[in-house]
């Protein structure tokens, strides 16, 4: 949320940024080794004990991410006639809605006195004009607005539930068989708008995860190494988000630490390696959380989808307990 108040004689700036995504910030080394008791240790500092052979210590260089806003708004105009521009630093289009509340008085917004809402789709890695604010009738003036931002282009005629997202490849390689441990509307954790149509596929840690559909990598995180079913792990999963050509997006979640093989902005094709399965974040055990989502009415919602059986070509609605078999 972002609010700005302007007056004829003074300027009051209040900014509250909603942290929605993370982008690259800096790198750091992670050390993996066995202690004197044979227990594996993950740490950002090297072992201090002289009894641990330095040659046995594995070192990984991790890409850390700094919290960043999905969009920023800046004024490109003078103080007496602000020109507000939305800046999108991500690799996906972002729909931005600017709403002016009842505090706003004696201004023209884009030339109109009654305008109170402006919505624009801001292309990836770019900025776009949103609103010009002008005082009128020589009176003292002020305005205040809130900003909402949703990743992905809006879907037209998005009412109701449909199976328009069809024919996804299995997100793993040949000669593999895995079970769907949680399906659509799963009782354990698939009961929010963002996960209602997600599935969990149980698989050993380190299983290669392949892109189920071609697209652009628009977000990734690859620095968590712990998991569990405590609240503290809700937002601590390694993941890859891929934007497809039709505007839908696939999330591959709970990936293994330091395993992601793609970078933000990279184009991937169906079947390309994107990472390896793990159990990071809110997870009761090794599995892949897979979900398709779309921007529907300024809300990022999970949507139903089907897989295509690689042997028969049949469309399959994923269900809890179903075996997914990919033969070579």
What does this structure look like?
The chain is an all-beta fold and 328 residues long. It has no helices and 28 strands. It has strands at 2-6, 11-15, 19-34, 40-43, 58-69, 71-75, 83-88, 94-100, 107-109, 117-122, 126-135, 145-151, 165-168, 176-182, 199-202, 208-210, 215-221, 227-228, 239-243, 249-253, 267-268, 273-276, 281-282, 287-295, 300-302, 305-308, 315-316, 323-326. It has 3 domains: 2-18 and 70-151, Immunoglobulins (Immunoglobulin-like); 22-68, no CATH class; 165-326, Distorted Sandwich (Glucose Permease (Domain IIA)). The strands form 8 sheets. Strands 14, 15, 17, 19, 20, 21, 24, 25 and 28 form a 9-stranded antiparallel β-sheet that branches. A 4-stranded antiparallel β-sheet has the order 6-7-11-9, with no helix packed on it. A 3-stranded antiparallel β-sheet has the order 4-3-5, with no helix packed on it. The relative contact order is 0.16. The chain is 0% helix and 47% strand.
What brief labels describe this structure?
4-stranded antiparallel beta sheet, 9-stranded antiparallel beta sheet, single chain, mainly beta, Glucose Permease (Domain IIA), 3 domains, 328 residues, Immunoglobulin-like, 0% helix
> What is the CATH fold-level name of the largest domain?
Glucose Permease (Domain IIA)
CATH architecture of the largest domain: Distorted Sandwich
Q: Give the CATH level 1 class of the largest domain.
A: Mainly Beta
The structural domain count equals 3
